[in-house]
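Backbones bend. We report:
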Amino acid sequence: MSTQHSIFRKFAHLVTAQWVRDGLHTALIVVLARASASTYGEFVLAFSLAQFILFLGEFGLNQPMVVALSRTWGDKGQVLAQYGLIKAALLGAGMLGVTGFCLIQGYSGGLLWMSLGICAGCGLEPLAGSFFVALRVRHRQDLEAYVRSVSAMLGYGYALTAVYLGWPAWSFGLFKVVENLCNLSGSAWLCLRDDGEGATRLTLGRRGLERAWRTAVGGLLFVGMALAAIGYNKANVFFLQRHGGSEAVGAYGVAWELVDGASNLVASILLSGVIYPLLVKLWRTDKAAFAELGRNSARTLTAVSLPVMAAIAMEADRILPFIFGEAYAPHAWVAAWLAPSILIAFLHNLAAYMMLALGRERLLLWIYVGGLGAGLALCQLLIPGAPLWGAALTIVLTKALVAVCTVGYCQRRVGLLGLAQLALCGGCVALAGVLWLGLGRVAPREIAEAAALAPLLWLLWRWRPRKSA
């Protein structure tokens, strides 16, 4: 079986599970958004807080864990136990930090308990993620997909029931606890069962605590990256809450759901779940194949992002009111401003994973810290005077600054996109813009949009992934 075919088979398993959870998540946010923009804004704020705890474990430690579990020598049960202990400690520290932040901000009782419930549930996800990483290293993405799908149905089923029955905010916020307790128990059982492929028990050994401490100290670099990354991604939401209120956060949140959904599909599944483990392996065994995989991925991700961005920018004024209700129609322009972040996120995430595989963690940390500083400065500069517009422009500019550094580094190392490819891409984008603006004045809207999408879809066809010979 070719490498290309294997990638897409694994991706298909994970994307199916992601669609199940995303579909249920969409149903939940549609119900909340249609019920009240203010309530939905509080939900977005609570989830933004939860991302800090989630990133500490998922992004901060799972990458080095892939390397540790990929070694042919060593006790995989000890690796799982060490990282599990660290993640549990981070969960406790994170919950203390979130509680303190909520109290300092003076959040209402309903928002406070909703935030704590969602944060606790999201904090359990990295613990389950340790076992999912072990399954991925064993190429059992099919088992991971099954557990994630069942757990999502149970967790979001609980949430939708709580909303329908009008349960209080604290009980509603526990839906992530339900989901991720199921993820944790299911993934642990599958990973630790005696099937001859992996660890059969968790053990720290006689010097386990000492090794866990060394692992934690060694992982501080990744924890710092995680905090900086989630900080520059979510800082604008907290500034928006302060200067625009919960309703403005709700308006931003529905637009961000539309845009970020496309970004996460690639970043969290294809790149982290499939491409990154391959990059780690190829950098050790076949550096030419490593560079080729990076170039092919960059080309395909660029081609995929362009028609998606164009469709969102042109149709946001129809999509958002249709899904979330007419109350969001006046703010549909926010999605168009956010659309460029899709291409930026695709290329940046690919470059970041390549830098991790190359062992350039320290450089990546400084890039993220710089991005956090730039993001906070932009928040302070742009959001107070024009909260919604400022929040949208801030996140796009911040992501672009970070991507210039990460993609630029990988461009110098392996040459992700050549001049001819950049020229072809730019030509297709320019032609799409001319067709949309030109036909939009003389033809029905749908014809202008279809004409604009044509060159972008042609580029996607031309740069489509092909199976290896």
